[in-house]
Amino acid sequence: MQSRIEKAKKIKVLVLDVDGVLTDGSLFFDNKGNEYKGFNVQDGLGIKLMQKAGIQIAVISGRASKPVKLRMEMLGIKLVYLGQLEKGIALEEILHKTGCKADELAHVGDDLIDLPVFTRVGFAVAVRNANEQILPYVDWQTELSGGQGAVREVCDFILQSQGKMDALVESFKT
Fold first, then answer.
1. Is the pTM of this model over 0.90?
2. CA distance from start to end of the chain
3. CATH number of the domain encompassing residue 53
């Protein structure tokens, strides 16, 4: 069985869930029905580092949300699939659009809705606060929880595994 480092070395696309991964899973609404979400700024920088290193980012969420759409635009993520209750269909489209093989994709998720993606990708990651039912299907569980830096943890791990982190760190010194 391949180590998680060997799996991470192959990654060309990182696929992220949103609620419970990029956020802590909380949903906030005002009395007019406007939705609010909190995103971790370090996760955002991790995503930008991945993009700078030539690794594409994709997002598949079971919910459609204006705040998520806005945040993905801010991060320059083009492969965004919102309101996707059948995540396997969105994954097929990502594979087609990127021309990558399934083992060149990683996915970070937290619940049962992520299983169709976990069972196909080369590197499946659950956040610390993930539902325990998905743990048998993942290669690694992060130390940090969703919305609390788990995505940055995954980004750093992939970049370090691929030997790209040192150059990225150096690029910030100038």
1. yes
2. 41
3. 3.40.50.1000
